[in-house]
Amino acid sequence: MRHRMRTRALGWLVVAGLVLGAVAGPTVGGATAAEPLTGAIWTSLADGSSVNANRYDLKSDVYLNGGPQNCNDGGLPDGLYYFQVTDPSGATLLSSDAISARQVEVVDGVIAGVGPTGTHDEGENGDCGSVPVQLFPYDDTPNPGGEYSLDLAPAAEVALCPGFDGGASTTLNFVKDCSVSQKNDNFKVGDAPPSDPPSDPPSLPPSIPPSIPPSVEPSVPPSVEPSVPSNEATISITKFLDVDGNAATTDDLIEGQGWTFAITVDGGTASTNSVATNGNGEADFDVTLTGDITTVSMAEAGQEGFDILRANCAEKIGEQLGELFGDLVGTTLTIDIEADTNYDCVFVNTGGEVQAETGTPTVTSGTTPPPTDTIRSTSQSSDGPRLLLLLIAGLIATLLVITPGPAARRRR
Q1: pLDDT of 122-165, one tens digit each?
Q2: Which one-letter DSSP state was computed for residue 27?
Q3: Rounded distance, CA 203 to CA 383, Å?
Q4: How do beta strands 232-242 and 342-351 pair?
Q5: Is 213 helix (H, G, I), strand (E, B) or coil?
């Protein structure tokens, strides 16, 4: 009889534990996505200097740099990280050595050189006291424009990815193969492709030599072609979703992947008519100017239930950003740009029930929402596992209620 009483008491404790786990405990079987990282990463030369339009002559010229946006802001969280180089989509891993060899350390918010297992060469004189780390070796990109993608993720999170193999793996792609916190930056290697081929082939030399005697010097020296300055500008777009809908807070911003923007240019030509944000909520394009100043409009493909909190741009001067500017009308941001300049633009949206457990908006026909599994830094829904816990608890409680308890022992 005492055994039956202990069994019933244990059964009620199990019910209580299941209910408590469903209400306050972590999701059973669910995966919690990684938290967004503070700070930023970028590429530089070995001496920490920046390169115009992030375009390098050789793959070995490119170094990882990172920290705060300026030396007065908070940078990356201190600790050990792994980096990798992929194609712009993140689908093809290009880094060719073991992931343990690509370990770097962050100290006081900045890249401070390689970590204990890192073997890559170090540079010097990085921004805010950082020590740049060389990205090479990595394979050539399949991208026809010579573009590459650089990703950085905490070593502790990457070590939990399937196939990590103690850091010996040369095939683990932590962007594609698992969910980790990460920072991203794109760069290009090689000469820029020509904007337009020559309209006519060069003329053939004359069949009869000129009749000017060799002793007669021409009165006018041959003209020298003036150097032609670059007439291109680069614009980068970053898409954020604001969880609490409060534009004054920035610690709850999550990147939005798969958001598209239509590009129109007045006074020039864009390299593409539309762009879509990648896994880090980022996209970029080039503009060829025909005059001194060109007007560029970026029209976000709106999603039902989402509203734009703010959108603006800033000129990128080295690794610093200038003053914010831009005119936002509806979902279209318009800016005036100049040649030989890089611009960073940010779109911040709220709505669509953006919460920690969901990132899928309700969408009407004709619009394309960001895919549920690609909005970074969001968690999978926990409703299913919680309901399962409550159902199990209810079944056990029902059995305990309908099963007669032990009769009280009669007193003598």
Answers
A1: 999 888 889 999 999 999 999 998 999 999 999 999 999 999 99
A2: P
A3: 74
A4: parallel
A5: coil
